[in-house]
Design a protein that fits this description.
- The complex is a heterodimer of chains A (about 450) and B (about 300).
- Chain A is α/β, with parallel strands linked by helices.
- Chain A has 16 helices and six strands.
- In chain A, a hairpin with a 5-residue loop joins strand 5 and strand 6.
- Chain A starts with a helix and ends with a helix.
- By secondary structure, chain B is an alpha/beta fold.
- Chain B has two domains: about 220 residues, 3-Layer(aba) Sandwich (Rossmann fold), CATH 3.40.50; about 60 residues, 2-Layer Sandwich (Alpha-Beta Plaits), CATH 3.30.70.
- Chain B is about 35% helix and about 30% strand.
- In chain B, the strands form three sheets. Chain B has a six-stranded mixed sheet, sandwiched between helices. A four-stranded antiparallel sheet of chain B has the order 2-1-4-5, with helices on one face.
- The chains are: A alpha/beta (about 450), B alpha/beta (about 300).
- At the A-B interface, helix 1 and helix 7 of A face helix 2 of B.
Chain lengths: ~450, ~300
C-alpha cells in the first residue's frame, strides 16, 4: 500500500509540475470566460460598418419613411430612379445595397429584393422585414377604418412566457427552468466526456512511455504490476480532479471579474434582451415607458433563472458528478492502461481505440438527446450500461431521475468498474513485458486467462 | 554456502525454448558471471530470478528458502535495457526507485548523495535524464540498483555503454560491493571483465548450461599444453620434437615466446630443451583467455548440434 502511494505521488507531482498543465489550468478558464462574455460584448459594443441603402418602390408609396435610420444604417428613399440603372451602379453611388419593393408586396411575401454586393447581415434583414411587416399589418388594419387604431395596436401587443413549476409528492411547489436543466446537462456531459477522455488518454500514454523506455522492468522488480497500474490511474485521476476544481473556481472568478469591469450593468441587461429590444426600438410607435418596462422584465427573468438554478438538486448532482467521474474514469483508464500495455508504440493503439471511442461518443450523443426526452427508453438503458452511464446519467440528473434508477446505475457502475480493473490488470501484467509481439484481440484474450 | 540457487529452471515461450533445465548455484559474497551468446537465455533467467516472469518449472532458492515475492527487497536489479523516465530529474528519479524498494526518504537521500559523489555525478542531480549522456544515465541507474543495499545484486550487461574509464570505475564499485558483503551476479559479453572480476561462471548456450565452475579451474582445464617463456636479451629458439613455436616477439630487451607441446611431454622436458636457447627469466603455463574458451566451447557445441 505504501508503495502505491509513492507511485501516486510521482504520477501526480510530475504532471502537476509540468508547464503544459499549469498553462492549461490557467488558460482554460480565461478562454471559457471569454467564450461566455466576448460574443455578447461583440454583439453590443462592436460597431458594424456604416451602410447606406437605397429604397426603390415600384408603383406604390407604402414604405416612405417607414424604415428608421439607425447609427449604422441610413435608408434613402429614391423616387425617380431607373431601377435597372441603379442595380448596376449603386455601389459607385455610395450605397451598400438597393431595397427594391414591388407593389405586389401587400399580397406576395417575396416581392421584396435586397440587391447588394455582399451577403447582408442577418440583423439587417430582420430589421427590414420586421419593420415592413408591422407597417403592412398596420396599413391593412387601418384599411378597416377602425377608430383609435394606434391605441388598439398598442393594447394588442402581447407576450407569452411559460412558467415551469414543479410539484413534488408532498405538494411543495418549486419554480424551475428547463433552460437551467439544459445548461447543466450540456456542461456535465461535456465535462465528463472531456475528463474521461483526456485523462484516460494520459494513462495510455504514460503506460506506453514506461514500456518503451523500459522503466517498467525496473519498477516491476520492486512492485507488483497491479500496484503500478493502480498507482498510475489514481495519480492521473487526482490530476484530473485538481484541474477540474481549479477550472471551476477560476472560471467563476474570471466571469465575475469580467462582468464587473468590462460590462456595465446596462450591457448585462442588453445581453439578455438584445433581440426583442431591437424590434421595440426600431418601432417608433412604442413609447419609452414600455421600453423601460421590458428592461425590468428582463431583469426579473435573470433573477428567475438564478432562482431556479438554486432550486436544482445540487446536493445530489455534485456528489453524483464526483462519483461518476471517478468510476467512469477508473473504468476507461483501466481499459486504456490495458491497451497501452499491449502495444509497443502509440500508432499501434488505433485498432483498439475505436471500440473504446464508440461508447463515449454514443454516450455524448444520447446525452444531448436526453434534453428532448429525458425519460426515453434509450436514455434509460444508456444510463444503466456502465460504458455510457457516467455521461448519460449526468445528463438526465437535472431532469429528476427516480432515485431507484440512480441507485441501480451506480450499483452497476461499481461492480463493472471493479471487473474492468481486474481484467485490465491481468492483461497489463502480461502485456507490459511483451515486446515486439503484435497484439491482437486473440492475444489479449489469452493474456486475460493466464 | 550458496546465497542463491536455481534448480532445473525451464521456460518455454510461444515458439522457442528459452531455458532448458538450467541450474546455477551462486556462492555467498562472490561475483558470478552469466555468459552466453546473444539469445542464449541469460536475460530470461535474470528476469525469472527477479520474479518479473515466472518459470514453467524448476525451483528457486534465496538463502536456502524458496524465493518469495517479498524477496525483491533483497535483490537489486540493473536491467540490460536501461529504463529511466526521460523527463524526470536524475536525483528525484533515483529517490523514487529507492522509495519503491522501501528505503525511507531521508535515508535514501543520504545514500544517493554518497553514491552520486562517489561516481562523480552529484552535479547532475537537477538535470533531466534526457540531458545526460548515456554513460551518466548508466551511472545513475547503477546507483538506483544498489541503493537499498541488497544482499544479491543482478546486473545485466553492466559495462555496455561505458567508456574504459567509467567501466573501470564500475568494476571497482562491484569489487567494493563484494567487500561489503554483497553477492553479484552479472551477465556480460565482456570477457576480460570476467577474468578480472568473476569467481565463478556459467555459460549458457541455446537454453542449456554448457560450462560452469570456478574461473581459475576452467582456465587451467582448458590450458592444454602451452607455455609462455621470457628470455633475457635476444634468443634463438631451435624448434625440436618437444614443442611447436606459436609466437615470438621482442619487448623491452626481452624475447617472449609461446610454445605448444604434445600432452605426453612434461613441462620439465620443454624447459630443459629451451635452456639451450638463452637465459630464461620466466616460464609459465599459458592460460587461455575466457574469450578463447568461450568461442571454442560455443563453436564446438554448434558443430555437434549442427552435425
Amino acid at each position: 500500500m505504501n508503495k502505491i502511494s509513492v507511485i501516486i505521488e510521482r504520477e501526480y507531482i510530475s504532471r502537476v509540475r509540468k508547464k503544459s498543465f499549469i498553462i492549461m489550468t490557467l488558460m482554460a478558464p480565461i478562454l471559457m470566460a471569454t467564450l461566455i462574455v466576448v460574443p455578447t460584448l461583440l454583439m453590443n459594443t462592436g460597431t458594424p460598418d456604416f451602410k447606406k441603402i437605397a429604397i426603390v418602390e415600384d408603383g406604390s408609396d407604402l414604405f416612405r419613411g417607414v424604415l428608421e435610420n439607425t447609427e449604422n444604417v441610413e435608408f434613402v428613399y429614391i423616387d425617380t430612379a431607373d431601377i435597372n440603372e441603379l442595380k448596376t451602379n449603386f455601389s459607385e453611388l455610395g450605397y451598400y445595397g438597393v431595397l427594391y419593393i414591388n407593389n405586389l408586396v401587400v399580397t406576395v411575401p417575396n416581392a421584396v429584393e435586397l440587391i447588394s454586393k455582399k451577403q447582408p447581415p442577418i440583423g439587417l434583414l430582420d430589421k427590414i422585414s420586421s419593420s415592413m411587416e408591422k407597417e403592412l399589418e398596420k396599413q391593412k388594419l387601418q384599411a378597416l377604418n377602425l377608430e383609435n387604431i394606434d391605441e388598439i395596436l398598442k393594447s394588442i401587443r402581447s407576450k407569452v412566457d411559460i412558467q415551469t413549476i414543479k410539484i413534488d409528492d408532498e405538494g411543495n411547489i418549486k419554480e424551475t427552468s428547463t433552460s437551467v436543466s439544459m445548461i447543466l446537462t450540456y456542461l456535465s456531459a461535456l465535462l465528463m466526456y472531456m475528463l474521461v477522455f483526456v485523462f484516460g488518454a494520459q494513462v495510455l500514454r504514460g503506460v506506453i512511455e514506461e514500456k518503451t523506455s523500459r522503466v517498467v522492468e525496473v519498477i516491476i522488480s520492486s512492485v507488483k504490476p497491479v500496484q503500478l497500474m493502480l498507482g498510475k490511474i489514481i495519480g492521473i485521476g487526482l490530476v484530473g480532479l485538481t484541474q477540474f476544481v481549479l477550472w471551476a473556481v477560476l472560471t467563476a472568478g474570471v466571469v465575475v471579474v469580467l462582468k464587473n469591469t468590462i460590462l456595465s450593468e446596462g450591457q448585462v441587461q442588453e445581453i439578455s434582451q438584445s433581440a426583442p429590444e431591437s424590434i421595440i426600438s426600431s418601432n417608433p410607435q412604442i413609447p419609452a415607458e414600455v421600453k423601460g418596462k421590458v428592461d425590468n422584465e428582463s431583469a426579473a427573468e435573470i433573477l428567475k433563472l438564478l432562482q431556479s438554478a438554486g432550486n436544482q438538486r445540487w446536493w445530489l448532482i455534485i456528489p453524483s458528478f464526483i462519483f461518476y467521474f471517478l468510476t467512469g474514469y477508473f473504468l476507461y483508464a483501466s481499459i486504456f492502461a490495458a491497451i497501452g500495455s499491449a502495444v509497443d508504440n502509440e500508432t499501434e493503439t488505433q485498432q483498439f481505440m475505436l471500440p473504446v471511442t464508440i461508447p463515449i461518443i454514443l454516450g455524448l450523443m444520447v446525452a444531448m438527446g436526453t434534453m428532448q426526452n429525458p425519460e426515453s427508453e434509450i436514455a434509460f438503458w444508456c444510463s444503466m450500461i456502465p460504458l455510457t452511464s457516467p455521461i448519460v446519467m449526468m445528463a438526465r440528473l437535472p431532469f429528476d431521475v427516480p432515485m431507484w434508477e440512480l441507485a441501480l446505475s451506480m450499483g452497476i457502475m461499481v461492480i463493472s468498474f471493479l471487473g474492468f480493473v481486474w481484467m485490465a490488470a491481468k492483461i497489463y501484467r502480461t502485456g507490459i513485458l511483451m515486446y515486439g509481439k503484435k497484439a491482437s484481440y486473440k492475444e489479449l484474450w489469452k493474456w486475460l486467462r493466464y | 554456502m550458496a546465497i542463491f540457487e536455481a534448480s532445473e529452471v525451464t521456460k518455454q515461450f510461444a515458439n522457442h525454448l528459452a531455458l532448458d533445465k538450467v541450474s546455477i548455484s551462486v556462492p555467498e559474497q562472490s561475483i558470478y558471471g552469466l555468459l552466453g551468446p546473444n539469445g542464449a537465455g541469460k536475460t530470461t533467467l535474470i528476469r525469472i530470478i527477479n520474479q518479473i516472469t515466472a518459470p514453467d518449472s524448476g525451483k528457486l532458492f534465496l538463502n536456502g528458502q524458496p524465493l518469495k515475492p517479498v524477496d525483491v527487497a533483497l535483490i537489486g536489479y540493473l536491467p540490460e535495457e536501461r529504463g529511466l523516465y526521460k523527463k524526470m530529474k536524475v536525483g528525484e528519479q533515483v529517490l523514487y526507485f529507492a522509495q519503491l524498494k522501501g528505503v525511507p526518504k531521508q535515508e535514501a537521500m543520504k545514500r544517493i548523495k554518497y553514491w552520486f559523489k562517489k561516481l562523480d555525478i552529484i552535479d547532475w542531480w537537477d538535470k533531466k535524464v534526457e540531458e545526460l549522456s548515456k554513460g551518466m544515465q548508466q551511472k545513475a541507474q547503477f546507483v538506483a540498483t544498489i541503493l537499498h543495499e541488497p544482499k544479491l545484486l543482478i546486473f545485466d550487461e553492466p559495462f555496455s555503454g561505458f567508456d574504459p574509464v567509467n567501466a573501470n570505475m564500475i568494476k571497482n564499485e562491484i569489487l567494493f560491493l563484494r567487500e561489503r558483503g554483497a553477492t553479484v551476479l552479472f551477465s556480460t559479453h565482456n570477457m576480460s571483465s570476467v577474468e578480472e572480476l568473476c569467481d565463478n561462471i556459467t555459460l549458457i548456450h541455446r537454453a542449456r548450461v554448457i560450462l560452469e565452475g570456478k574461473v581459475d579451474d576452467i582456465r587451467s582445464k582448458w590450458a592444454g599444453n602451452e607455455y609462455e617463456v621470457a628470455f633475457q636479451g635476444k634468443a634463438e629458439v631451435d624448434v625440436n620434437d618437444h614443442f611447436k613455436l606459436l609466437d615470438k616477439r621482442s619487448e623491452n630487451g626481452k624475447t617472449l615466446i609461446r610454445v605448444a607441446t604434445a600432452t605426453s611431454i612434461k613441462s620439465n622436458e620443454v624447459l630443459q630443451s629451451l635452456m639451450r636457447s638463452g637465459n630464461i627469466l620466466a616460464f609459465n603455463p599459458a592460460l587461455p583467455s575466457m574469450n578463447e574458451i568461450f568461442i571454442k566451447v560455443v563453436q564446438s557445441r554448434n558443430e555437434t548440434v549442427d552435425a
